[in-house]
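Project standup — Tuesday

K.O.: blocked on the structure for the chain from last sprint. Re-posting the sequence here as requested.
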Amino acid sequence: MTPLALDIRAARVAAERILDELELGSYVFTVEQKAGGWELSVQCSAGQAWQVISLPVEPVKLRASLDDPDARSEVRESWRPHLAACAKRGA
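H.V.: unblocked you, prediction finished:
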């Protein structure tokens, strides 16, 4: 696997862990390297409709969140307000 593929794989694992911790209901997501940097795109249920939320991602922090609870908490709390409209698990 190329270094970029490994980075994307690690980013997906880290993002999924954080999204799980945010207890979102129904959602799908991607993490991609774009021309201007990395981006997380989340499609989530928001009541009767689905919405798409895109956020810039710092790949170094995201990768660090795999092993560092403080880094994971920092990333999670920075995403929380952007994903607040998404339906929560069990709601």
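K.O.: great, moving the ticket to review. The first strand starts at residue 27 and ends at 34. The chain has a mean pLDDT of 90.
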